[in-house]
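HUMAN:
Could you generate one sequence with tokenized structure?
ASSISTANT:
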Amino acid sequence: MLECRDRVVVKYIGEPTCPIPAAHGNSRTYRPFVRTKPSVLNKIKEVVNTTGGHAGPAKMYKEAVRQVETTDQRDCPRDVKQVLCLSLSSHSIGVK
């Protein structure tokens, strides 16, 4: 038998075909984390820059959701809080 003291073999015993989506980090909700597409984030930043952030996060969120024609969650902002955070960060540091 070959002797290698710096190697370990691990065998997974379980069902590999049924992963359970779970929330990540310290989330208080049970919905799994779905990353928003960078193109959607950039679109929100553009709206913030063109309106100067005066449209309000709730109005920008509703407009972004209304424009989406697919059912993919990543094609629209996650919630109003995400729009608010993006508008505050891009407005405060002048991201264009």
Summary: The longest helix spans residues 38-51. The chain has a mean pLDDT of 76. The chain is about 40% helix and 0% strand.
